[in-house]
Amino acid sequence: MTAIALAATGCHVENPDTPTPPSAAAQALAELKALPSFEETKVQVQDVMNEITAAASKIIPSITWETLDQGSTGNCQQPYEQTDGKRYFLPDAVAARVSVSDLAWTKIVEAARVAAARIGATNVQVIRDQPGDHDVWFSGPTGTFIKVAYRGNLVVSGYTGCRLPRDKK
Q1: Does the model's pTM come out above 0.85?
Q2: Could you tell me which residues come within 8 angstroms of residue 22 by beta carbon, excluding any fewer than 6 positions away?
Q3: What residues in the chain have per-residue pLDDT under 50?
Q4: Would 138 disulfide with which of 8, 32, 99, 121, CB 3.0-4.6 Å?
Q5: How far is the C-alpha of 145 from the C-alpha of 152, rounded, in Å?
Q6: Which domain holds residue 115?
């Protein structure tokens, strides 16, 4: 799971304290300029999370969703550390103490797969898949990811990847 988080944040473990060389930093900036803005990406990821929670609520009508954190933002890591890029872990959507059958889980994961594909998060990684213990990540080549997990609580998470704020593009 750490490898996924490192890959998704653009972190390189070869000499993490060495600044990105100027040519690579310029290329990283050009990549970010070609992507949707930080603000647009936050909205896109939140929309996908909302689509997944709505689908889960249709599958299991008794679900009550909560937001237990405010998310977290920060500057980007290598090779984007010399840009004005930002990254954001959106607040998790949590349905506490809900019973999710294997059939319901399969339907929720399919809804998540379809929704995540809308933002290019089509790489599926199954971290855990045991009865009552599930963790599935949907990631894309630009660093965004959506995560759906269940272990007594159903959790939907999202991450923007590194993006330039609108006023820095």
Answers
A1: yes
A2: none
A3: 1-13
A4: 121
A5: 22
A6: 2-13+37-168
